[in-house]
Design a protein that fits this description.
Distance between the termini of chain A: 50 Å
Oligomer: homodimer
Largest interface: A-B, 35 and 35 residues
Chain lengths: 126, 126
DNA sequence: AACAATAATAGTAATCATTACTACTTTTGA
DNA sequence: TCAAAAGTAGTAATGATTACTATTATTGTT
């Protein structure tokens, strides 16, 4: 992987905006700083970065794919009202991968968990 | 919801083919039996049926949405090699929803878990 | 510093999954 | 039998993502 200014800025934007943005949201954020950047470049780089483990790809949230600068093992919660995405640290979740692997004899290498409901802020507003 | 032959056949096709098909796969399966059915009808009905809880919608597997005739609470495993989708009964998975709800004070109403890896059949082929 | 190989880019077109729209048809309950 | 409501087929439109291409930037080597 060769250096590119675009990739550096994409990574930086993701780190500075820990809101689990989509490719398009990152693109919009970047256009101020680098107006010539193209959406395809954002997609290509995010996919590369998630391949190489530098960012995390989150699916299953809504239609589109989101990205996360936090690459430690963790899970996600999305609020049905405000649509904000929250991190759920892996420590808060009972061990899933090894338990299921033991019981099913599958080789499990990835585990994606998405919880949905009402976040604390939105609970108050009722 | 009014009765329709199309909806009945869509539900039956899903029940007879517990392979977690996509809308398009159901459409292809149905075309033999009812060649005039339209893909839009399949989508509309699957969405209705999943709204009413008669089928389960699975996201986070790959790009597209899959459907499951099994509406009991359960999770999924997708094999990275053969791409087959397996059911993981909820009983095999440590209780996630209440544990996380207690610790985070979020109201959790849905929980989607997707495990990925190598299924037992594909492990043998190595 | 100049250079060639290779990777990356912008911009656009193409693809895939899904939804929206519309005129017509079925279902249903009075 | 009939009208209201819901459903349908077929097509067009949308949204997210990838593919393609000619040009540009990076990098290791002379």
């Amino acid at each position: 992987m060769k250096y590119s200014k675009q990739r550096e800025l994409i990574l930086k934007t993701l780190q500075d905006n820990p809101i689990h943005p989509t490719a398009d949201e990152i693109y919009q954020l970047l256009r101020c700083e680098l107006p010539t950047i193209s959406l395809g470049t954002v997609y290509r780089n995010l996919n590369q970065l998630s391949e190489s483990g530098e960012v995390m790809k989150i699916t299953g949230l809504d239609g589109s794919v989101h990205f996360d600068h936090n690459t430690y093992q963790h899970y996600h919660f999305i609020c049905n009202k405000c649509n904000k995405v929250y991190d759920i640290p892996a420590e808060l979740v009972p061990n899933i991968m090894t338990t299921v692997a033991e019981q099913t004899r599958m080789h499990i290498s990835e585990c994606e968990l998405v919880l949905k409901g009402l976040c604390r802020d939105c609970q108050k507003l009722n």
